[in-house]
Give the backbone structure.
Amino acid sequence: MAMATGGGLLTAGALATVVVVGAGMASSSEPADPWAGLGLRQSAAAAPQTGRDCAAVMFGEVRQVAADRECRSITRTLLVVSDGRGTSAAVAVSWVEFGQRRDAREFRRVEDVHGTGDITPLPGAAAGIRDVAFSALHYTSALNASTVIVAEAEPLEGAPGDDLLREITGVAVLLDRPAG
């Protein structure tokens, strides 16, 4: 993959979003919008897809690690976030669950290296958009117990910029795993 953010280190903008989200959740019964701190809102989402054959939706060395380790399930979704003024991005998010934390760490180690393979994103049609070629240039991964969360973003409309796209992935890895 590309440029993991140092084991989950977020940019200042994404970190501010985390603080805002945490503060909003503590003071209100309404769920906080995780995208609000970036001036975005989620405008579309594919129905999450969950499967037990992790390697079937991966390629390269990443696929081999998932096959060799105790990968229990993978949930994938495709989100669209926009600023409401003509700028939008597609965000592929995956939750890869392993039986043991050490297997998840090994998977993440390989996934975080650009050129070692990847998780195949859902097709754009699943979220009502065109297909998107994910470059892995706007990428963040995170580890939560024995689950690796991987997020990649690409522009759809307008020019979101590399920094914003990386901040988007920093927020995406903090999202709850959807039921699927």
